[in-house]
Every structure is written in C-alpha cells, then in structure tokens.
C-alpha cells in the first residue's frame, strides 16, 4: 500500500486559565513535508469530526490535552482527505468502514496514544505524541474507547491489550505523519498573518501558557512562560 504523509506544524500560543492539564515544551526537531493539496482558504472548520467531545470526562480530567488536540488535528486532516476523495481507493474504502462513525467523520482513540506515548500526571511532550503516532499507529475510537465516566487515572492508563497494539502497528505501516515546528519559545502575541498562512496547509498543534481573560473576554500574554495547555487551531 502507498505510504501517506501529512504535515503537522506546532506553534506556541496562549489560552485562558486551564489548571489541570499540562504540556511540556515542543521539541525543535521535525522534517519539512507539505501536503500535496492545500486547503487554500485556511478554514478547517467543516472538517472537524462530529459530534465534538470535551476532554473533561465526567468528574475526571485525563490531563491528556496534548494527545486530545493532536488526535483532533489528525482527524481533521483525514476528514479533509476523505471528503475530497484524496485517499487511494483501497485505503479509502477500508478507512471509511473501520475508522468513521455513523455521521461519516473519522473518530480515533485518544486513550490509545495517550497511553502508548507515556502521558504522566504532568502531561506529555508534543514530540512524544507525534513519535508515538508514527511508532504505535492510530486506531479507531471503537477499538479502544474511554472507560465509562468516573474512571480513575489508573483505569484510563492501564496497559493496552496486545491485540490493540498489534492493530495499531499495522496501521502505522500505512499512515506516517510528518511535522514541522514553525515557532518555538516565543512568548509574544502571535502574528495573525503568519497563522493564516500556515493554516492553508494544516491545522495547528500548539502549546502555551495559562493566562486569564481580560475584562473584554480576550486572552492576552500575561508574562507567564510556562507551558501548561495544548489545543488545536
């Protein structure tokens, strides 16, 4: 089967006060590899998987914001490929059968990569997330779903069954993900024009400080220089 690669670009950005999710600084490594077809308007909203879900599950927060946002990014890119008929036909059919929900959107297991990548109660380095995706593969949500609400850390991060890991390894032979850091260690306000340009080729995986909103409801740089939350733009 043809090996498919996609670009992931990581940016440092700022987000309101999130107290229970943490992320280590992204690495400065990564290779340049660009999508064969650009999403030229830079708007990925229609490719977001539905229904949306919250990282907060019942009364327990997995503290896996790096994986949650990274998986959302991968789902978005794969939805783009599926909806624009850009996957090889043999992969397209199998992918729709096993990786898509009844609404037709790609839904992947966050818990699988969060566990395989080695998430701790202090979070996960972005580089470790992407390395795990390529090493351990992505799997459908149905293959390794979250436990029911009210689960503990130990229940969520229990060892992944071998048959699930074997499945992921097979998927990793088909999908490999390339990524590029385009901003790191810059704690100033982001340059919006740069974000718009990058969004033409990929959604953005970012980590930033926890800064409160001002009276106008806008989150601004507050002088904090500690990575504590990850999201997708």
Task: Give an overview of the whole structure.
This protein has 233 residues and is an alpha/beta fold. It has one domain (9-232). 30% of the residues lie in helices and 8% in strands. It is built from seven helices and six strands; from the N terminus they run βββααααααβαββ. It has helices at 65-83, 89-99, 110-116, 126-136, 153-156, 162-172, 192-199; strands at residues 9-12, 56-57, 60-61, 180-181, 204-208, 229-232. The strands form two sheets. Strands 4-1-5-6 form a four-stranded mixed sheet, with helices on both faces. Helix 4 (126-136) packs across helix 6. The radius of gyration is 17 Å and the shape is globular. The two termini are 31 Å apart. The model is unreliable at 1-22 and 27-36 (pLDDT under 50).
Described by the principal axes of the CA atoms, the overall outline is: globular
Question: If strands are numbered along the chain, what order do they take across the biggest sheet?
Answer: 4-1-5-6
Low-confidence parts lasting 5 or more residues at pLDDT below 50? 1-22, 27-36
Cα-based radius of gyration, to the nearest Å: 17 Å
Question: Quick recap of the structure?
Answer:
With 233 residues, the chain is of the alpha/beta class.
Write the layout of secondary structure elements.
Layout: E1 9-12, E2 56-57, E3 60-61, H1 65-83, H2 89-99, H3 110-116, H4 126-136, H5 153-156, H6 162-172, E4 180-181, H7 192-199, E5 204-208, E6 229-232
Parallel strand pairs: 1-4, 1-5
Antiparallel strand pairs: 2-3, 5-6
